[in-house]
Design a protein that fits this description.
The complex is a heterodimer of chains A (about 375) and B (about 280). Chain A is of the alpha+beta class and about 375 residues long. Chain A folds into two domains: about 200 residues, no CATH class; about 130 residues, no CATH class. Chain A has twelve helices and 13 strands. In chain A, a hairpin with a 5-residue loop joins strand 2 and strand 3. Chain B has two domains: about 90 residues, Translation factors (Elongation Factor Tu (Ef-tu), domain 3, Beta Barrel), CATH 2.40.30.10; about 130 residues, Rossmann fold (3-Layer(aba) Sandwich). Chain B contains six helices and 15 strands. In chain B, the strands form three sheets. Chain B has a seven-stranded mixed sheet, sandwiched between helices. The relative contact order of chain B is 0.14. The chains are: A alpha+beta (about 375), B alpha/beta (about 280). Chains A and B meet through strand 5, strand 6, helix 4, strand 12 and strand 13 of A and strand 4 and strand 13 of B.
Chain lengths: ~375, ~280
């Protein structure tokens, strides 16, 4: 007989507070003043900032591992009075920033949607794989437990089912929950030791009993309805086919010009995208001290490819937008056999000129060639 | 864990002026352990930084066969390179790397080599040329065809003279605009085809220069019978991280910093992204 492990929603707040003692808990929090929902620390939750697990967050959770701007190290110029000709430079703090001590506190991201966990997988491939790794990302990522709640609430912009996911896709979640009204039911449990530890520490919140046939039917219904709703938002995309299609139609300059005409290179889509992680590196100095930082950048930016000689290989917006679409639906797939779009729909939601990535892809695919 | 973004100090041991806007910096690490273990390949680049100004990717212009120092030939073009030009002997510069792939060496032994070069493009090629010169018996005939805008834009003038004196080695120079006192050839580098025989048999060619020059040189080599896979070139893009993460330097699904900067003409032709001239 199958069992059902669940946590009562009325106990959720106490559970999260207990969790927050040993972990830094981040979860979707709605700012009542402006209505926006974003991943925030549980510490800021109060009367004006309330937990909202139903809606989609405006920004993706990527900034928890990849902050909009972060210092790589600091430096200081020093002059010795006895040797005034020589300017000494000291590079500071680099070791500390990526040390185990600084990053020892474990993180829990609670209520992360399945699409966003697929995005975290993408970021792991970018920063954590290959011969050379990004320690700033890895140190923030490695102690993080992802607790997902499946989406029984599918929005018109959602299209995860089209790009290989679904509203209850828990492959990259450490713990996957289904909202069944009164309770959050555990649907997926990973083998991670630290997750077991977490559950043991909080075992008073979890109840277990036999599942009845009504509940089984209900779970299946929730899942299939969400899937159905999501797949009606867009056709299903075969990754291999779409990558090939992008490849074949790359040189259709006129088509690309037409479909990207509206784009104003504002970067809003990149800002909210859970997988866009292009960055720039720069220095800032005040007086004798300064820091080298890494900050978000966007490929639809004219300056993104501008060389010191004045040569710009992607001078026109259509070339830059084409690169962006190819990055998501072709290049990343070629490198990692994984699409780089998870179907969260945030870019559609936020675009000031109403561009819709689904329409763009549809247009490319419909061109007969 | 190794912090790839953290640069190491090196001292500037010597500065040589190549042209009005280009200098060669000879530098070496101050940390003995790092200096002893450091190794690189011909054609690779490093990220050079002046804290406060930033960092820039620069090809290593010295040969890995000559130990105990690194040379970078830098044109003052942007913010960082201009800051580097203001440094003097004894100053510190910060380095990380080396990054990228390299020119073939073992695979081209026993062959005739054609170097077709434009302007400061000689910097990365000099690394391979000097490596070849230090292993001269392993190679057959060598021709260096080098073009620059003006006589002043020719880099490594002393070395060009030295290479000429090595048996079985020819150096052909040409400039677009002659200046007073220039008795040599005038015209773009492909004009040299009229004067010297280019034989693709048992030969490879290595090309570097501005994009337009690479295109014309590669096409000309092809006309002469070179196969696309025997034409090597080093490409450039605006780069930031050097390790294939930041996204800046992609051409199609390849990152110039990680999968390049050395590509064959065959690979280059396979890229979907064409520059207007390429």
């Amino acid at each position: 007989m199958k069992t059902l492990t669940y946590i009562k929603k009325e106990n959720l707040n106490t559970f999260l507070e207990k969790l927050n003692k040993n972990y830094d808990v981040f979860l979707p929090v709605q700012n009542k003043a402006d209505g926006t929902i974003n991943f925030e620390s549980l510490d800021i939750v109060n009367d004006n900032n309330v937990i909202n697990l139903k809606e989609k967050t405006r920004k993706s959770p990527k900034s928890l591992f990849f902050p909009p701007s972060e210092n790589l190290f600091e430096f200081e110029y020093k002059k010795d009075i006895k040797k005034p000709d020589i300017m000494e430079i000291k590079l500071l703090e680099s070791e500390k920033m990526i040390s185990d001590e600084t990053n020892s506190r474990k993180k829990v991201i609670f209520g992360i949607k399945p699409c966003d966990t697929m995005a975290v997988k993408c970021l792991d491939l970018v920063f954590g794989e290959g011969e050379k790794k990004d320690p700033y990302y890895i140190m923030k990522r490695k102690n993080t437990i992802l607790i997902s709640i499946g989406c029984s609430n599918v929005f018109p912009d959602c299209f995860c089912t089209s790009v290989g996911g679904n509203p209850f896709y828990f492959d990259y979640s450490d713990l996957g929950l289904i909202d069944m009204g009164q309770n959050l039911v555990i649907f997926k449990l990973s083998e991670r030791d630290d997750l077991r530890k977490l559950l043991d520490e909080c075992n008073e919140f979890f109840e277990e009993r036999e599942i009845n046939s009504d509940e089984e039917i209900e779970i299946k219904k929730i899942i299939s309805e969400s899937e159905k709703k999501c797949s009606s938002n867009w056709e299903s995309v075969n990754a291999e086919d779409i990558a090939l299609d992008m490849e074949r139609k790359f040189s259709e300059e006129e088509m690309w010009k037409n479909i990207t005409r509206k784009c104003i290179s504002c970067a809003a889509c990149t800002y909210v995208c859970p997988t866009c992680v292009c960055f720039n590196i720069g220095d800032e100095q005040t007086g004798m001290k300064g820091e080298r930082y890494k900050c978000w950048d966007f490929c639809t930016n004219y300056y993104y490819t501008l060389e010191a000689s004045g040569h710009n290989p992607r001078e026109k917006i259509y070339q830059r937008y084409r690169n962006k679409i190819n990055c998501k639906y072709n290049y990343f797939y070629k490198r990692n056999k994984n699409l780089y779009c998870v179907g969260c729909g945030r870019c559609i939601d936020v675009c000031p000129v109403g561009m819709d990535i689904r329409e763009i892809v549809k247009h490319v695919r419909s061109l007969q060639k | 864990m190794k912090n790839e973004y953290f640069p190491y100090p090196a001292v500037i041991e010597d500065i040589k002026t190549e042209t009005t806007d280009t200098k060669t910096f000879r530098v070496w690490f101050t940390d003995k352990v790092l200096a002893d273990s450091f190794d690189y390949q011909q054609g690779q680049f490093m990220e050079l930084s002046v804290p406060g100004a930033g960092e820039a990717p620069i090809s290593i212009s010295s040969s890995p066969s000559r130990k105990g120092f690194l040379e970078f030939t830098i044109r003052a073009a942007g913010k960082v390179t201009k800051s580097i030009h203001m440094l003097k002997k004894g100053d510190y510069i910060y380095l990380r790397g080396p990054y990228g792939n390299s020119f073939p060496f073992e695979d081209i032994k026993g062959k005739n080599l054609y170097f077709v070069v434009g302007g400061i493009g000689l910097a990365p090629l000099r690394s391979l040329i000097n490596l070849v010169m230090d292993n001269r018996n392993n190679f057959r005939h060598i021709k260096v065809l080098y073009g620059a805008r003006t006589p002043d834009d020719l880099c490594f003038k002393d070395e060009l003279e030295q290479w000429k004196k090595i048996p079985d080695t020819e150096v052909w120079l040409t400039v677009d605009k002659p200046s007073a006192g220039w008795g040599g050839r005038v015209g773009v580098v492909t004009e040299l085809w009229k004067e010297t025989h280019i034989n693709p048999e048992n030969a490879v060619s290595i090309v570097c220069g501005p994009p337009i020059m690479i295109k014309f040189a590669a096409d000309k080599l092809q006309e002469s019978g070179f196969k696309d896979k025997d034409i090597f070139m080093t490409l450039e893009r605006y780069m930031k991280c050097g390790i294939g993460k930041c996204g800046h330097c992609n051409i199609d699904d390849k990152f110039i910093c990680k999968d390049g900067p050395v590509f064959t003409y065959e690979q280059k032709k396979g890229f979907r992204h064409k520059e207007h001239i390429f």
